[in-house]
Amino acid sequence: MREILDSLELENTSNDMNINALPSCFAVSQLASSSIGAVGCAIAKLMQDLGIVRESPNVRVDQTLASLWFAQSIHPVGWQLPPVWDDIAGDYQTMDGWIRLHTNLPKHKNAALEVLGVKSLRNKVAEVLKHEVGDVLERLIVEAGGVAAKMRTPLEWLNHPQGIALRSEPLIHWHGANPIQVSDWNPTLQRPLDGLKVLDLTRVLAGPVATRTLAGLGAKVLRIDPPAWEEANIVPDITLGKRCAYMDLKQAEGKKIFEELLYQADILVHGYRPEALNKLGLDSASIRHISPNIIDISLDAYGWTGPWSKRRGFDSLVQMSSGIAAQGMHWAKTNKPCPLPVQALDHATGYLMAAAAIRAISFSLGGKSFSRARLSLARTAELLKIYPQSEKVTFDNKAQQNHFASAFETTPWGQARRLRPALNIEGTEMKWDREACELGSHKPSWSAS
Q1: Which pLDDT does position 121 carry in this prediction?
Q2: What is the pLDDT of residue 178?
Q3: CA-to-CA distance for 384 and 408, rounded, in angstroms?
Q4: Rounded to the nearest 5 degrees, what angle is found at the Cα of 137, between the Cα atoms of 132 and 142?
Q5: Which residue, 235, 247, 215, is CA-closest to 437?
Q6: How many Cβ atoms are within 10 Å of 89's Cβ, its own excluded?
Q7: Is pLDDT at 17 greater than 60 in this prediction?
Q8: Residue 108: pLDDT over 60
Q9: SS (H, E, C) the chain
Q10: pLDDT tier at 16 (50, 70, 90 boundaries)?
Q11: How would you class 123 by CB atoms within 10 Å of its CB: exposed for 0-12, middle for 13-18, buried for 19 or more?
């Protein structure tokens, strides 16, 4: 997937290709390998730019492990993760096709149920939806503050105003400011990002993948969430290597502390919609004023231009909107939407965000003023869609048994096994100095333990 490397101005990486590839009409396992490999290539280039190595370190990606990390990196021992989906979330038939409701967050669930005029009963929801028009229902739920996506064919998305807008967007939007500087950074080949401070304002799922990746290369990651925020079904997977704190940015005291953290940070990773940040007084200009040297990495769901540029969205919804689920239905010869076998748009975009953060440092070392990068799930989807699976493949789920780290991980929820890293950079050990933690379990401080 050359576009990934071109967007980051990188040379190719080497994959340990094998017969295991996730079953899909699209090359999901190749996307996994390429996006993870982009992180490795960015590190290799950074080590050269810093003069730590003379020749670029060898970078390899194990495709089986990359595919497994795109599903779930942690496997509980003697306990279970909560269900991934709320009882109402899922695909429903409408009178003219299919629609997906995403109701994991209470406010999104309440919005959908209010529009439908039913209580929280799945069979009642299904009955109502059979008599609704997909386009109309999608619009009403979105206007009510919920999230939903009608299933569109690839051709319908191609002619949709948002699909048209995406075609003119790069995979990574680079923006300039003054060349950045990083403080208290102690780069070595063994721990390339040691000392870098990463402020994490992200939630499900791409952003947390990005910051987890940076933590695995030595960065100090502090995740900030609103009080009482929870993502129980993924927290054990994506808080690896991080400190996690609660903070109310709507209160003067919380905002003051946050601004102090931002001033000291080297990298800011966020997935808030622009209006949400503006309401908090954290628009791009304000962020730059508080922290002139910050590397600013952000993402959204549907792209940065076009009529849906401010629309809420998630991986599963983008798959429905962009034609992926419809193409999967045709490929699988089934009569219902067939999504990707993993949330590949989230994971791939997350690794690309991590790679972009690393490249921003190299750009600055080379005198380029590219300190802001913007990515989207929908643009990553457009990349995947041009790479069909080359042949019918199968994936041996038992393969993961041979890919766990040798030591067990002790978490607040119990013992667990963690996958070995899929990325191998010559001379660099990808590891996490902290085990997974609960949200809000640390103080909002760079120095707190």
Answers
A1: 86
A2: 62
A3: 35
A4: 165
A5: 235
A6: 20
A7: no
A8: yes
A9: CHHHHHHHCCCCCEEECCCCCCCCCECHHHHHHHHHHHHHHHHHHHHHHCCCCCCCCCEEEEHHHHHHHCCCCEEECCCCCCCCCCCCCEEEEECCEEEEECCCCHHHHHHHHHHHCCCCCHHHHHHHHCCCCHHHHHHHHHHCCCCEEECCCHHHHHHCHHHHHHCCCCCCEEEECCCCCCCCCCCCCCCCCCCCEEEEECCCCHHHHHHHHHHHCCCEEEEEECCCCCCCCCHHHHCCCEEEEECCCCCHHHHHHHHHHHHHCCEEEECCCHHHHHHCCCCHHHHHHHCCCCEEEEEECCCCCCCCCCCCCCHHHHHHHCCHHHHHHHHHCCCCCCCCCCCHHHHHHHHHHHHHHHHHHHHHHCCCCEEEEEEEHHHHHHHHHCCECCCCCCCCHHHHHHCECCCCEEECCEEEEEECCCEEECCECCCCCCCCCCCCCCCCCCCCC
A10: low
A11: exposed
Residue 203: partners with Cβ closer than 8 Å, 6 or more residues away: 225, 229, 231, 271
Q: Contact at 8 Å (CB) between 1 and 382?
A: no
The side-by-side arrangement of strands in the sheet containing 220-225 is 173-176, 370-376, 295-300, 267-270, 197-201, 220-225, 242-246
Which residues are 268's β-sheet partners?
A: 199, 296
Residue for token pair 């947390």 = 208
What gap in Å lies between CA 195 and CA 184, rounded to an integer?
6
pLDDT at 292 over 90: no
Query: Is residue 124 very low, low, confident or very high in pLDDT (cuts 50, 70, 90)?
Result: very high
CB atoms within 10 A of CB 356: 30
Burial class (CB in 10 A: 0-12, 13-18, 19+), 33: buried
Is residue 15 over pLDDT 60? Answer: no
pLDDT at 189: 95
404, 75 contact by CB (below 8 A) = yes
pLDDT for the residue 120 = 77
How far is residue 235's CA from residue 128's CA, in Å, rounded to a whole number?
Answer: 34
333 pLDDT band, cuts 50/70/90, is: very high
Stronger pLDDT, 198 or 121, i.e. the higher one: 198
